[in-house]
Design brief:
The complex is a heterodimer. By secondary structure, chain A is mostly helical. Helices cover 74% and strands 1% of the residues of chain A. Chain A is globular. By secondary structure, chain B is an alpha/beta fold. Chain B is built from 13 helices and 11 strands. Chain B is globular and about 65 Å long.
Chain lengths: 502, 325
């Protein structure tokens, strides 16, 4: 079956009423649970899993996938309106989305998030259709050394996204790297900083960290400063629609973010997180006035949102062809397939064309539905900002607790989110960027594991990073970026055109 | 599917109602059962548990709720079961690790297997296959052992973590074959198979279902299996025992078992053992288990206790040797 035949066949398959209904169910559910911070797709898919016993494998996959990418749309809502990201990707969206909401441009931020999410998804689908085979080979070609080098590039590139001074950015990345050390070391099996707590053996709960640092810290900050009631003037349709200037600013970031996301999404592991951060860093770098970032730059919402949605689509490539789930939610979906006696593998495309092409077609249908569903909802979401804080904040805290508990069902994590929230408040007082901490936390363990694995495999020879073409590319890119940043910093301090900071 | 669910719920309710007069005579079970699983929803141990708990609920006339408490290789599941114990309706399923090797791998698990855990029955066992890339020159166990023995750490193998079944099995194999291989820990079989196909590492012991898709696509080859008999899911793979100089009794299997807190009423254990053993005799259940790589292996509580003891000793000896290196 050629690509076009496959795609046509898939569209026909996905439009059957018996399949379409599950696609609709999935995306609607996904976009609603995505709005609930931290609860997200994980809990929804866990709950839906028993239901999938009673429907066909294709319908099950299409429905669960709908929840997955649908939640990516919803995830932006809580980050933009309440600074409550349930994942590191949405934390990036909060960086500029939340300041936009604070300055009365919540509608524009949400519109930017939805439109770029849609555009990113469509890009991801196009890449998936045209390059699925190539992406699979790329994923197998990536060895430990290549992953380590790639993550280092990610860390270097994204370390520049903080709005504060370089030293503060480094401090936060380092703190994140340190927190990432908590738990069982993959290579040696040694338990680090667990203090005998079994709950810490798998590390600190990522959802607890994200919601503590952002959401809970924000709530504490606002309670202490009750005059900070959000700008809650009535927002009409006009204020919701972006101006011509906004649209012009969104185009390129959306395209660049989508391209980054499509590529990194296909690499299992942190593709989605990495591409969000990289997209944000890239937009800041190419922007004429980078100082706008962190204070409500629409590019900072459009790029990363496009990236993480594109990544959510191409992440299905390694999941289905190599059986490597990119994240715990993908692992759940694999589980649903296994329940139906389907082991994903290289033959999936040939053995089950209706599943592969049906899924791809359902991505297109589902994303279109999501756009139609979400645009009118923007008005309703924005109304959340009119809820008085005395009602909103207790509700937020309840949702945070529910969300954190739903991950593993451990009360330990609820205590953890409270402690992290307090720490996050102190960091915010000192104007440290929690997003960088999160990035260090996510990438740190992956860099360490892959670096040491690469050295183990090479029997201790560090030349492995210069002998593999992929690795050497990333190493050179990291070096170039570091030199460029240092040069810029040098010029900024000595040059005549010292930019004003706003 | 909603219709089916409601129908099932209705049957459960109906059964629960008919059970009411009996429960008046204080006959177990008087309330829903909770079964703790130390792995996330959708994982192989979770699917296995649900294959058992669905028919169990029908037979007991009470809902059986699976509680996923993932973490620490299944140890958190056992801990959470013990923390919620005391009402006679709390149980758990677990893989072998938390009951055999965890005490050696962790500073403290917080429970004593002999004292705190009452075995109910083994549910199923799974062997591991030794797989290599199809580009490799090793075509059978003989040539594999020869290649591995060429020099110290001539071959590198992947496992799903320090102290995992895949790691310990490979070490047991190396020891019996008189070779020494380089261990590269990963976190999932998918990572191991990708690394084998990418040519980074040479081999790995893994669940048959993890290797099969890549064997069928011609990317990988299976050289041997660790069970005593050929395994129905991969019947063509020769058993390792007795080949290439390995002892005839070479055997390494993972297992999954149903357990209860230590102070559970022996009558309840007996009842559960009877029900689960009968469930496992159903060919349809056996087929479902096999599809996810497990072979039904019901037995008595005493047999399970015996298995815990022998495996603790066997893997303990392997861990001793690994730690001594």
């Amino acid at each position: 079956m050629t690509t076009w035949e496959g795609l046509l066949y898939g569209i026909g398959f996905a439009l059957q009423p018996g399949i379409l209904i599950y696609c609709v169910l999935g995306v609607v559910l996904g976009s609603f649970v995505g709005v609930l911070p931290g609860i997200g797709a994980m809990a929804a898919i866990s709950l839906l899993l028993p239901v999938t016993y009673y429907i066909t494998a294709e319908a099950a996959l299409i429905m669960l996938a709908g929840v997955y990418y649908g939640a990516q749309y919803g995830g932006a809502v809580a980050s933009i309106l309440m600074r409550l990201p349930g994942t590191p990707q949405s934390a990036v969206t909060a960086l500029d989305g939340y300041p936009m909401a604070r300055s009365g441009r919540a509608g524009v931020a949400l519109f930017a998030a939805m439109a770029s999410s849609f555009a990113g998804s469509i890009l991801g689908i196009a890449v998936l259709v045209l390059l699925a085979g190539w992406l699979t080979r790329a994923a197998t070609a990536f060895g430990a050394a290549d992953y380590a080098a790639m993550m280092i590039l990610g860390l270097v590139a994204a370390s520049t996204i903080g709005t504060e001074r370089v030293a503060k950015s480094f401090a936060m990345v380092t703190l994140g790297l340190l927190l990432g050390c908590v738990g069982t070391d993959v290579n040696s099996g040694v338990q680090r900083f667990t203090f005998g707590q079994t709950e810490l053996l798998d590390g600190i709960n990522l959802v607890a960290l994200a919601m503590g640092l952002f959401g809970v810290a924000e709530v504490i900050g606002n309670v202490r400063d009750p005059d900070r009631q959000a700008v809650a003037e009535r927002i009409g349709l006009r204020a919701m629609m972006p101006g011509r200037d906004d649209v012009r600013r969104m185009g390129w970031p959306t395209l660049r973010g989508g391209a980054l996301g499509s590529f990194f999404g296909a690499l299992p592991g942190t593709g989605s997180t990495l591409s969000s951060f990289l997209s944000y860093a890239m937009e800041r770098r190419v922007a004429k006035r980078p100082e706008r970032f962190g204070h409500g730059a629409v590019e900072g919402v459009a790029g990363p949102e496009s990236a993480n949605n594109a990544a959510a689509i191409t992440a299905f490539v390694p999941t289905l062809t190599l059986g490597i789930p990119g994240d715990p939610i993908m692992a759940l979906m694999l589980g649903a397939l296994v329940i139906h006696g389907i082991q994903p593998g290289p033959l999936m495309l040939e053995a089950r064309p209706e599943m592969f092409w049906g899924l791809v077609a359902s991505f297109g249908i589902g994303n279109l539905l999501l756009l139609i569903l979400n645009l009118p909802l923007i008005g309703i979401w924005v109304a959340i900002l009119r809820i008085p804080f005395r009602w909103l904040y207790p509700a937020i805290l309840v949702f945070v607790c529910l969300g954190v508990y739903s991950v593993r069902g451990l009360t330990f994590d609820i205590v953890a989110v409270a402690v992290i929230g307090l720490a996050g408040y102190l960091l915010a007082l000192a104007r440290f960027s929690p997003a960088l901490l999160l990035l260090g936390f996510v990438l740190g363990p992956l860099i360490e594991t892959n670096l040491r694995r690469a050295l183990l495999i090479s029997r201790g020879d560090p030349m492995v990073f210069l002998e593999r073409p992929i690795a050497v590319g990333f190493v050179l890119a990291s070096a170039a970026l570091l030199i460029a940043s240092l040069w810029q910093a040098f010029r900024r301090h000595t040059g005549p055109d010292r930019p004003r900071t706003t | 599917m909603t219709i089916d669910l409601t129908r099932r719920a209705a049957i459960s309710c109906a059964l629960a109602l008919t059970a009411l007069p009996v429960s008046a005579q204080e006959t177990w079970p008087t309330e829903p059962l909770r079964v703790f699983v130390g792995f996330p929803a959708g994982s192989s141990p979770d699917v296995l548990a649900r294959i058992i708990t669905d028919p169990l609920a029908e037979r007991l006339g009470q809902p059986v709720v699976v509680e996923n408490r993932p973490g620490a290789g299944g140890v958190i599941g056992v801990q959470q079961m013990l923390a919620s114990a005391g009402n006679g309706h709390t149980f758990g399923t677990t893989i072998n690790g938390p009951l055999t090797t965890a005490q050696r791998m962790l500073e403290s698990t917080g429970y004593d297997v002999a004292e705190d855990i009452a075995p109910v029955t083994l549910i199923a066992t799974s062997p591991l296959v030794l797989a290599v890339s199809s580009d490799a020159e090793m075509t059978d166990l003989e040539s594999f052992v020869a290649a591995a023995g060429a020099e110290e750490e001539a071959l590198a193998y992947g496992s799903v973590g320090q102290g995992s079944g895949a790691h310990l099995t490979a070490e047991l194999f190396s020891d019996e074959a008189g070779v020494s291989m380089l261990h590269i820990p990963f976190t999932s079989y998918a990572e191991v198979t990708t690394s084998i196909m990418g040519g980074e590492i040479d081999a790995g012991f893994m669940a048959p279902s993890a290797a099969l898709p890549f064997v069928e696509s011609g990317n990988m080859r299976m050289l041997g299996i660790t069970s005593a008999e050929p395994f129905p899911q991969a019947p063509d793979v020769p058993v390792i025992a007795g080949q290439a100089g390995l002892p005839d009794d070479f055997r390494a299997e993972l297992w999954n078992a149903f357990m209860a807190p230590g102070d559970t009423d022996p009558a309840v254990i007996d009842r559960l053992n009877t029900e689960i053993t009968q469930i496992l005799e159903d060919p349809e259940v056996q087929q479902k288990l096999l599809a996810i790589g497990w072979q039904a292996a019901p037995g008595t509580p005493a047999e399970m206790e015996e298995r815990i003891a022998t495996d603790t000793q066997m893997w303990g000896a392997v861990i001793d040797r690994v730690e001594a290196q």
